[in-house]
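anyone seen this seq b4? input:
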Amino acid sequence: MRAKLSYAVTAAVLVFYFVLVGSRGVMLIESGTLVTVTFGVAVLILPVIGLWFLWKNTQFVRRANALAAELDAEGGLPVDELKRTPGGRIDRDSADQVFAKRKAETEAAPDDWRSWFRLAVAYHDARDTPRARKAMQRAIALHDGRPVQQH
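predicted toks r here
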């Protein structure tokens, strides 16, 4: 729940920022000179890109959460079997062992969105966020029946 609240607050702050920047862009355009109109258009592009990115990221999170709920209903969520240090950090060797197991499961069933979901969690636990995101995107695409891009 804390993560959802943090995401909502961050999104709200970003939207406020985008509105503020957009209003400045409009003010520059209303000035009417070639330089201010050019800068105004450039400034308006930033909130558009930001809103697009926020929308895509929110859609990704919603889809990943939907997969987690479905997998939980099936009893297939990965069990937290990671060893931790006394300070609560994940032991790297433990994360590597779990990752190797999840990778083998995914190689054995490359068209199963569930194995890709569990691999994404293993990547996340190993602190490899880019690969975790790619694995989750693949899980979402497989779940939705969309073609999967090979990289």
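The mean pLDDT is 90. Helices lie at 2-31, 34-74, 92-108, 113-125, 129-144. kinda curious what u guys think
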